[in-house]
Amino acid sequence: MEDHRLKAFCLIVETKSFSKAAEAKSMTQSAMSHLIRNLEDELGVKLLSREAKTVTPTPAGRLFYDYAKEILDLYKKMENDVYGLVHKVKGPLAIGASPTVATYFLPQVFYSFSKTYPEVQIKVSVSNTESVINSLREGIIDIGIVEGIPQKTTIHREEIAEDEMVIIASDENPLSAKKPLTPRDLLSQPFIMPETGSGTRELVDDYLRTLGIDPANTKVSMTLGNPELIVRMVQSGTGISFVSKWSVFSAIKDGSIKLLHTGKRLRRKFYLVSAGKEPLTMAARVFREFIREYKFFIPF
User: Fold this and answer.
1) If 144 and its partner were Cys, which of 82, 96, 260, 268 is the partner (CB 3.0–4.6 Å)?
2) How far apart are CA 193 and CA 175, in angstroms?
3) Can you say whether the dihedral through the CA atoms of 254, 221, 132, 39 is positive or negative?
4) CATH 1.10.10.10 domain extents, the chain
5) To 10 degrees, the CA torsion angle through 41, 45, 50, 51?
6) What is the CATH number of domain 1-87?
7) CATH class belonging to 163-267
8) Which of 15-29, 67-81, 140-154, 170-184 has the highest mean pLDDT?
């Protein structure tokens, strides 16, 4: 339960953009503009100033934003208290997830969660770790699941699972028969890298340094944010790459992908993240408890 006009207005202020706010609400930009015009006409006050590509609140808009946030928080509290009184879990749950998590980690979780809590409406947005954290700060999502967290962030985090990154090559790559690989071997190959700004890219760069390789010296032939596409490009022989074990389970079984070995393993954590220690909505709190207890399938 919420006032969609208030939510839309707050999103515009927080993202400083009509288009970004419209995307977060799954609306067209013209529909978003109509909501704001409706608010301004009803109040008889200009709430937003549109200059170039930036949208900022007027003094009246800033005051309106502060009250709107309080009202939206009260809506959430009211829902939580009412549902808590009758021991009912329902309502929207906005989750942000990084690509690997969303593709390989969450489907099994959502299947089990939805069977237990069928009245929770889950909405998932997929982006890199940095974007997920920004969405939490802006109130666009309730909770996030990512790999790797910037050290200086104030976002609350807790580890929920462990993953291992592996280096992969096509079955025809000559390095697939060599163990262990040397830094010279890796530097001879074109890399398909995760996108800059992702937790995965930071992890890969740090790992290369432990092998004595400056990431700047690698031959990056392609940068991709989709783990499935990375695996397919490696299968085609375009280059080698670092991916989660979750994403290559099938390709390893059918023999089209080979693992490369350096003698050093690369492990990482999956984290549940929220703006505060206690998520605001009951659905988010119940989901947090559910995923804490979930037993994950380990690919190999």
Assistant:
1) 96
2) 18
3) negative
4) 1-87
5) 150
6) 1.10.10.10
7) alpha beta
8) 170-184
